[in-house]
């Protein structure tokens, strides 16, 4: 039995990497604003998803479709509608994750022999992942309905930069700090702590091998610098890093984050599927 993987562009997988693993990526849509109206986004249509699944089935017995968290998008709703017309050959999974947490979950499923095993591996990777990120202005997230008014107010105070986390329930504030440089240091510290390092005080998870993803908004140099600083901090703290994936934030996600966003994902390095 052969398995094909499909995901959406919220996974932030570099195209060459997706092709190398035979992953079909369906694009989310970034829609430009008009006049004073801000840009917005749209989920892939049922027809687009059905076409992707049917195309994947041409070369496989089963399809596992792993999609963006339902707390952030209705993509998985359309995915389930699309899968209905193709019978039991298509399995749709709400990853509860976004960006690299989603991308690394899909990669974890790539060597699975069937959809059931692949879904279990993707679910385990996503459920044990942490996505921390920074934005320059919370108003973009507020306008898109991704955070509530109370959370948006946290970042309205002069100089305050919250470190945010995205999970199955949506976006939350992990901690607030003053100043962009300090917020970046705390972003790295949160990632080191999640990886089992010793950057923060308090109870720590065991230092099991992890895979990392680094995301940047506009400047690739920001991504490279963050990757270098993160790798150095992980090594100093004794974290065990299996790999680091670096990629820009997907265009549709960028609509909700605004310019200058930075993100770090910590995911488990799962043993190969047997």
UniProtKB/TrEMBL annotation:
Under the heading InterPro entries, the entry gives:
DegV, DegV_C, DegV_domain_contain
Report the GO molecular function annotations: lipid binding
Q: Name one Pfam family in it.
A: DegV
- Keyword terms, alphabetized: Lipid-binding
Q: Which SUPFAM superfamilies match?
A: DAK1/DegV-like
Superkingdom in the source lineage: Bacteria
Protein name (Swiss-Prot/TrEMBL): DegV domain-containing protein Cgl2349/cg2579
Native species: Actinomyces howellii
What are the top taxonomic ranks of the organism? Bacteria, Bacillati, Actinomycetota, Actinomycetes, Actinomycetales
């Amino acid at each position: 039995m052969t398995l094909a993987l499909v995901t959406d562009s919220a996974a932030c997988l570099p195209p060459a990497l997706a092709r190398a693993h035979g992953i079909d990526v369906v694009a989310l849509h970034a829609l430009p604003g008009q006049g004073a109206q801000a840009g917005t986004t749209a989920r892939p249509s049922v027809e687009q998803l059905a076409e992707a699944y049917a195309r994947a089935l041409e070369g496989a017995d089963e399809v596992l479709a792993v999609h963006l968290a339902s707390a952030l998008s209705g993509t998985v709703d359309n995915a389930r509608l699309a899968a209905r017309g193709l019978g039991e050959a298509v399995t749709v999974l709400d990853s509860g994750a976004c960006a690299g947490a989603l991308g690394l979950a899909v990669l974890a499923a790539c060597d699975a022999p069937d959809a059931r095993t692949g879904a279990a591996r993707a679910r385990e990777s996503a459920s044990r992942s942490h996505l921390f990120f920074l934005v320059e202005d919370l108003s973009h997230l507020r306008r898109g309905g991704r955070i509530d008014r109370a959370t948006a107010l946290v970042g309205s105070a002069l100089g305050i930069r919250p470190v945010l986390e995205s999970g199955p329930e949506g976006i939350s504030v992990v901690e607030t700090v003053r100043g962009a440089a300090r917020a970046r240091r705390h972003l790295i510290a949160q990632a080191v702590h999640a990886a089992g390092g010793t950057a923060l005080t308090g109870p720590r998870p065991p230092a099991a091998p992890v895979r990392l993803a680094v995301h940047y908004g506009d400047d690739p140099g920001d991504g490279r610098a963050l990757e270098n600083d993160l790798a150095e901090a992980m090594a100093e703290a004794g974290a065990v890093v299996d790999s680091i994936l670096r990629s820009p934030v997907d265009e549709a996600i960028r609509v909700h984050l605004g310019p200058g966003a930075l993100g770090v994902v910590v995911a488990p390095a799962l043993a190969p599927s047997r």
